[in-house]
């Protein structure tokens, strides 16, 4: 009995000494990744020992449901219970496991990959873990500067917009000397997991360069517009342009109105013509009917007259005969 107890103490002491001797180490700072690119999540055992025969598990700490990101056990990857969004995108470099490196390669990074990860390594005699904080950035489209009209004093309204960023970037206006200019209006919009930003500014300087710069940590995109003197006399050009546009707008309207009225008048005339033709045809039919009726009556009268011409002489003769008797 004493021998068994002594053996357990020795084994426990060895396990404790191993646990104190080795540790799982992760990065001291957050790991930054760019959406669409690949990233390595560092994790290793110090001092370096092979983890080929150990269990290596990567999982998310900030998710409530299924948390498994990648599992290596019994010399193979076992990802049947892996989060669906990570399917086919995680990999351990097996050659590096010999040197105690259990870093996870994550391919085609998505914005949703940002979060808190744990690297857990376990052998028969010890285990340890390290935490890795992943921050994902999405680089948006280059900013676009547009002229958005003029104010009453002749200043030029400029608008700068950039889309597709994560997290929300900083947008600033700079003059030709690199001095920051305060925007008059600032708008932002979030579409699913991306941000769009839009700033407007009014410029009164002549012959100057105006920069629009969008920054997100170490990423920066910039656009430039050159403001010339002839852009600051908009009134005459605007009036001429407005008159020209009005004329172009009114003339087709007048032509269309004339065409419509002409068509309507022509339509009314055609309708009246058809009505008169129908009335004329009805009168023609009635006239023809009256002519037929006239001929019928005339025929009947002629027949009656001929009958009378036959009957009257006979009646006279009969009358004379009876009178002589």
TrEMBL record:
Keywords on record: Coiled coil, Disulfide bond, Glycoprotein, Immunoglobulin domain, Membrane, Signal, Transmembrane, Transmembrane helix
GO terms of molecular function: signaling receptor binding
One annotated GO biological process: regulation of T cell activation
Transmembrane segments: 239-261
Principal localisation: membrane
GO CC, any one term: external side of plasma membrane
Coiled-coil annotated residue ranges, if any: 266-300
Localization (cell): Membrane
Domain Ig-like stretches: 36-135, 142-228
Alphabetical list of PROSITE patterns matching this protein: IG_LIKE
Residues annotated as signal peptide: 1-17
Superkingdom to which the source organism belongs: Eukaryota
Protein name per UniProt: Ig-like domain-containing protein
Organism: Onychostoma macrolepis
């Amino acid at each position: 009995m004493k021998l068994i107890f002594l053996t357990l103490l020795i084994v426990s002491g060895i396990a404790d000494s191993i646990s104190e001797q080795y540790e799982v180490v992760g990065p001291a700072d957050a790991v930054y990744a760019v959406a669409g690119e690949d990233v390595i999540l560092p994790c290793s055992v110090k001092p370096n020992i092979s983890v080929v025969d150990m269990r290596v598990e990567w999982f998310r700490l900030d998710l409530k449901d299924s948390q498994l990101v990648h599992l290596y056990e019994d010399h193979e990857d076992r990802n049947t219970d892996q989060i669906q969004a990570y399917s086919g995108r995680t990999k351990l470099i097996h050659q590096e496991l010999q040197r105690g490196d259990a870093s996870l390669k994550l391919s085609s990074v998505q914005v949703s990959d940002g979060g808190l990860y744990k690297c857990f390594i376990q052998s028969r005699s010890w285990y340890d873990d390290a935490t890795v904080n992943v921050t994902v950035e999405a680089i948006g489209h280059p900013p676009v500067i547009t002229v958005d009209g003029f104010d009453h004093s002749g200043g030029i309204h400029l608008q700068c917009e950039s889309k597709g960023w994560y997290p929300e970037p900083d947008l600033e206006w700079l003059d030709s000397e690199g001095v920051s200019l305060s925007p008059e209006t600032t708008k932002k919009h979030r579409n699913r997991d991306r941000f769009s930003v839009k700033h407007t500014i009014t410029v009164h300087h002549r012959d100057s360069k105006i920069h629009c710069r969008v920054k997100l940590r170490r990423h920066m995109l910039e656009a430039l517009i050159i403001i010339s003197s002839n852009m600051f006399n908009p009134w005459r050009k605007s009036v001429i342009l407005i008159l020209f546009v009005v004329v172009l707008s009114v003339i087709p309207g007048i032509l269309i109105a004339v065409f419509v009225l002409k068509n309507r008048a022509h339509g009314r005339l055609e309708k009246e013509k058809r009505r008169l033709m129908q009335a004329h045809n009805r009168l023609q039919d009635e006239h023809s009917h009256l002519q037929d009726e006239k001929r019928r009556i005339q025929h009947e009268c002629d027949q009656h007259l001929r009958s009378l011409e036959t009957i009257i002489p006979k009646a006279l003769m009969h009358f004379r005969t009876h009178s002589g008797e």
